[in-house]
Amino acid sequence: ITYEYDVSNDNFEKNSKEAIDRAVKDFAGTLNTLRIYQVNPEKNYSMFMAHMEVQQIYVMVAATPGTQDYFGSYRWSPIAKASPPGGNPSCYPSYLLHYGKSVAKAFAPYNHTLGLVMANEVMQASLIAAPCVKQYVADLKNWMRSKHDRMRLLPLAYAAADGAYVGEKGQTDKPKTLVDANEFATAKIQGLLCGDTMVNGQMQSSIDIYLVNEYRWCPGSKYSDTYAHLLAMASGVPIVMGLGEYGCDKNPPRDFAMIPYLFGDSTTSQGFSDVYSGGFTYSFGEANLGTGTFFPLF
C-alpha cells in the first residue's frame, strides 16, 4: 500500500505507527510492501524502519523532494515537470543529486529497503523532464556503484502517470502520435532505457523498475478493457514492471476486483502476474489528500 504521512522519528510513534499497525492487522498477512513519499534525509527514520523489519514489510522510498516546508532546503530542488516562466530548460537542480545520495545512504543499510522511486509523474504534461530523470538515475546509480564496498546498490524506479500525453498549458505543437496512454507509456519506457545495456540482469545506468500509477479499474471494469492493455504495453520490457499506485478515482465505494489479476497465478491473472510484480494500493494516508477525497483510509 501507499502511505503519504510522515514516518520519521518525529511522528512515527505518536501518529503513524497505529495506522500502519492497523493496516498490517486488517490485511492479515497479505501486506508486504509500503511505499512512502515524504522523506527528508536530515530526519531520522530508524524507528519506522526497525518496526517494518519486525513486521516483515519492505519499504519503497521516494528519492525526489516535494516543495513543502517538511523537506527543508531540499524543497527547492525537485525535478521540474514543465518549462519555467523564464524558459530555462534546466530541470535537474544541482542540489537534487545531494538529496538522492543522502536518501540512499540513509536507507541502503536496511535489507528491507526495496528500492528508490527517483521521480513520480513528472513526464505527463511535458517530456522536458525526461532527460533529467534519466541523468539523475545514472548519476545516483554510478555513485552507489562507486561505493559498492560500503553500501548496497539499491534498485531505482520511475513511477509514471497512466494517461495520454496532454502537453503543457498553452502548448500548441503537441505530437499527434503520442495521444494514447499505452503508446505514451511505451515511449517513456524506451526513452528511459535507451542507450543502456543489461549486465547480469541489471541495467547499468538506467531504471530497474517501471511503475504505472493506474486508475483504470473501477467498479464494473473488465480485464479486457483495462489490464489487458497494460499487459500488451509491457511486452518485451526487460526490467521489472509494477503498479506504483492503483485504485479508482471515481466515487466510492472502492472496488478491489483487480486483485486476482495482480496477485493470482498465471491462469487466474491471464498472464498479467507473469509480467507485473504486484502493486501499491492507493492510498492508506489521506493526510495530503484533503477533505472529500475518493481515496479514504481503508
From TrEMBL:
InterPro entries linked: GH, Glucanosyltransferase
GO terms assigned for molecular function: 1,3-beta-glucanosyltransferase activity
Signal peptide positions (record): none
One GO term describing the cellular component: plasma membrane
Pfam families named among the record's database cross-references: Glyco_hydro_72
Gene Ontology BP, a term: cell wall (1->3)-beta-D-glucan biosynthetic process
Keywords annotated in UniProt: Disulfide bond, Glycoprotein, Signal
Family that this chain belongs to: Belongs to the glycosyl hydrolase 72 family.
Name by which UniProt lists this protein: Glycoside hydrolase family 3 C-terminal domain-containing protein
Native organism: Aphanomyces astaci
